[in-house]
UniProtKB/TrEMBL annotation, chain A:
The lineage of its organism: Bacteria, Pseudomonadati, Pseudomonadota, Betaproteobacteria, Burkholderiales. This is Acyl-CoA dehydrogenase. Residues 237-361 form the Acyl-CoA dehydrogenase/oxidase C-terminal domain. Residues 9-113 form the Acyl-CoA dehydrogenase/oxidase N-terminal domain. Signal peptide: none annotated.
Length: 371, 409
């Protein structure tokens, strides 16, 4: 698969298009209004995203995409982050998209990617995230594959049209990815809401049988596809967090300049200046490591990618906590209100960093890492 | 609660002169067990939403025992408790899952009234405060007067036997439950902004008052913005002299902060955190578990230090010494420890630490629920509300200003 970087002109057109989309469709008031409806429509902007062509971003040109470079996708996610999208751009277009793009049946692959880019099908990867013991296993039966196991906090479990089930073959120990339309598959699923308003579910597979024809990838090619999907997932969530941090640093700067107490702008207090400087440092550091991870998708080794997944998650988790909480604190009472954006951005950071931890555990052995 | 009882030796100091602290703590503990409504205890133990009636019923039970205003002088219905006794009382109540005492009446306006009020004001308001029949709120902050409280601009203009009040107050917690507000208003524009402020009692039913809810980041309606449009308040509702407001506010805020470290609640929370971690540690690898335990040990050590620090300040205050910054030190350390504890607690839930919906902690089983996202609602409420602690009651920035200004004087 060859990834082609976007030329600078296309890049700036995409960026301004997405900025306009966020400004028009993702005003905080509109977002809150959507979340206050029952049931919540998590897909109302999905057709718009399809129309903007942005669902094609994670795919190489040969598959009808915009190029699929890791760094381009990261920049797009960062721009969208300002809106705190309620649609599964990362989960369906980036993560599931990556699994679909690695499919070996070229004809079906093309069909599915066209469907995804066109916005008519939401796919979600289940299992194999790596940061959790949420490995599914399957057993061959006469009717197909019986799937067993539990998954915790799967985003958009209920919204998906297609499940990509990553399981380990109990007999051979080989990884396997099954592609099953929702209408042909069941699992016990309990749904709940995350702190940033997004939907998630806990799932239980208790021997549900998927047909033999559901096998999408197996063995080494499944392993490679899952590895790539994992790197793309972590990169996208990191970029999302970085985009949110950018908004928080910007808002806090504006507030420090505008808010007057004791007859002066509060930004004239040195104690706050230093803390604001630390927020900025944490942000640019997080942005740098997120970019390094994104670049490794395009030209890094599997070893680079594995280390950077861990390193970026670690740095971004700390930066997110610092920036989220400092932004609230420096906004004082305003930071504590539900009406104002700061606390929502912090909630988003909490959710995104928790999601990152489902993909990346703390187990990296720095002493054993080759230098 | 067994683990908490084991901590007794840590809590109780070796020497006690005024009263038998060990005995008193036992008595308080027993009282809470016997008199706290089981429904309310269930809510507190499980991190669920408390309604006004939970607080009122508990406060009235304490009143019947003569403990609601224990720190007040006897002549006004109190028990003349020392700081040490009040401290022991609050800590035991919190350890045994009693709701906090809402301070706006009993701890704030009450002492102002018995210290500075007229005989008529004492007669009129103190009984309602002690019996919790009158609910009070505090009208201090304004949109442009937060940390800079003296910048307040809500005006009260004299008109015969009345003051006519215009303006707005922000962050008026529980104004939607309140019968009365104690309010700082500007009665005079002066060169020094701390002058010309007057302490005024306002009946919330007076025409011209509008209470607008402010929903906070936890999705809960705790606080409000209150608007005054030509609200006529009898001039006899001024406490102290006209222009004495700043002096009275400082007196009141000093009391607001004295038990701000809220160590009883934090000790109880630490036990709950351990329960959660034990439950979720099963999903962790030995390495992940070791990391969590090391982090927990550090938090637990910080809590032991906070308890010891609060104890030392209480001893100092008992000995009549006051460096003037103890409350600020305790507020900064206490609120920031609470924030660290709640972040740890949230993360102990693993991926479910991302779950939160405010409605999931209205009723139900909360922390005791078998559904992890319901537990998460209670834990994340604690996490979100903890962000408020470093802002309200004088932000931590203001507390640090007070500390360094005092030390560097």
């Amino acid at each position: 698969m060859t990834y082609t970087p976007l030329d600078s002109e296309s890049k700036s057109i995409i960026e301004s298009t997405l900025r306009r989309f966020v400004a028009e469709s993702y005003d905080l008031g509109l977002r809150r209004a959507r979340l206050s409806q029952s049931p919540i429509d998590y897909l109302s902007c999905w057709p718009v995203l399809a129309e903007l062509g942005i669902l094609a971003a994670p795919f190489p040109e040969e598959l009808g995409g915009l190029g699929g470079c890791g760094s381009d996708v990261a920049d797009i996610v960062q721009t969208l982050a300002k809106g705190m999208l309620l649609e599964p751009f990362i989960e369906s277009a980036v993560i599931a998209g990556s699994i679909l793009a690695d499919g070996t049946n070229a004809v079906i692959r093309q069909e599915l990617i066209e469907e995804l880019i066109g916005g008519s099908c939401i796919s979600i990867l289940l299992g194999a995230r790596g940061g959790l013991p949420d490995a599914l296993r399957c057993e061959r039966t006469a009717a197909g594959y019986a799937v067993y196991g539990r998954l915790a906090v799967v985003p958009f479990a209920a919204q998906a049209d297609v499940w990509l089930i990553a399981a380990v073959d109990a007999e051979s120990g080989n990884p396997l990815i099954l592609r099953v339309p929702r209408k042909h598959a069941t699992a016990a699923c309990q749904h709940f809401q995350l702190i940033d308003g997004l939907p998630a579910g806990d799932m239980l597979f208790d021997g549900q049988v998927m047909p033999e024809s559901a096998v999408w990838l197996e063995g080494d090619s499944a392993k490679r596809a899952l590895d790539m999907a994992r790197t793309r997932a972590v990169s996208a969530y990191c970029s999302d967090a970085v985009g949110v941090m950018a908004s928080l640093v910007e808002m806090t700067g504006e507030y420090l300049r505008a808010r007057v107490q004791f007859g002066v702008n509060i930004g004239s207090f040195q104690a706050l200046q230093h803390r604001f400087a630390d927020m900025h440092i944490a942000y640019v550091e997080a942005r740098a490591i997120a970019r390094a991870l994104a670049r490794s998708i395009d030209d890094g080794t599997a070893g680079d990618q594995a280390w950077l997944r861990f390193a970026a998650t670690s740095v971004i988790e700390r930066a997110a906590e610092k920036i989220g909480h400092e932004a609230i604190q420096m906004h004082g009472g305003m930071g504590l209100t539900e009406e104002f954006g700061v606390s929502h951005y912090n909630a988003r950071l909490v959710a995104v960093t928790r999601m990152l931890r489902t993909w990346v555990g703390p187990e990296m052995a720095p002493l054993d890492r080759d230098q | 609660m067994q683990q908490i009882e084991n901590q007794e030796s840590e809590l109780v100091p070796q020497s006690h002169n005024e009263f038998d602290e060990i005995d008193f703590r036992k008595e308080v503990r027993q009282f809470v067990r016997d008199n706290l409504a089981s429904e309310t205890r269930h809510k507190v133990e499980n991190g669920l939403y408390l309604s006004k009636s939970d607080y009122v019923a508990w406060q009235q039970a304490l009143h019947r025992k003569g403990w609601f205003a224990g720190a007040w002088p006897q002549e006004f219905g109190g028990s003349d408790w020392s700081v040490r006794q009040e401290h022991a009382f609050l800590q035991e109540c919190a350890l045994n899952a009693a709701p906090i005492i809402i301070p706006y009446g009993v701890n704030m306006v009450g002492p102002v009234l018995y210290t500075f009020g007229t005989e008529e004001q004492k007669r009129e308001y103190l009984p309602g405060i002690i019996s919790s029949d009158t609910w009070w709120c505090q009208g201090y902050s304004e949109p442009n007067a937060g940390s800079d409280l003296a910048a307040l601009t809500t005006t009260a203009v004299r008109d015969g036997d009345f003051f006519v009040v215009n303006g707005t107050k922000m962050w008026t917690t529980e104004a939607h439950w309140a019968d009365m507000m104690h309010c700082l208003v500007r009665t005079e524009k002066t060169a020094r902004k701390q002058q010309g402020i007057t302490f005024l009692l306002i009946d919330m039913k007076t025409p011209g008052i509008t209470v607008e809810p402010i929903v906070t980041l936890d999705g809960v309606h705790h606080t409000n913005q209150v608007f005054f449009d030509n609200v006529r308040v009898p001039a006899k509702n001024v406490v102290g002299a006209e222009g004495d407001g700043w002096k009275l506010a400082k007196f009141l805020l000093a009391r607001e902060r004295s038990f701000i470290a809220d160590t009883g609640s934090k000790m109880r929370m630490m036990q709950q955190i351990k329960v959660t971690l034990r439950q979720y540690a099963q999903a962790l690898s030995p390495y992940q578990r070791a990391l969590k335990e090391a982090a927990l040990a550090e938090l637990d050590a910080s809590l032991t230090a906070l308890v010891a620090l609060e104890r030392e300040y209480v001893d100092e205050w008992m000995a009549g010494r006051d460096d003037g910054i103890g409350a600020s030190v305790l507020k900064v350390r206490g609120s920031e420890l609470l924030q660290r504890m709640t972040i740890f607690w949230r993360d102990a839930l693993g991926p479910h630490g991302a779950a939160y919906r405010a409605e999931d902690r209205v009723g139900g089983e909360g922390l005791n629920a078998k559904e992890p996202w319901i537990q998460a609602a209670a834990v994340n409420y604690g996490y979100l509300y903890a962000r408020c602690w470093s802002v309200f009651g004088g932000s931590n920035e203001i507390q640090r200003n007070i500390i360094s200004a005092t030390l560097l004087r």
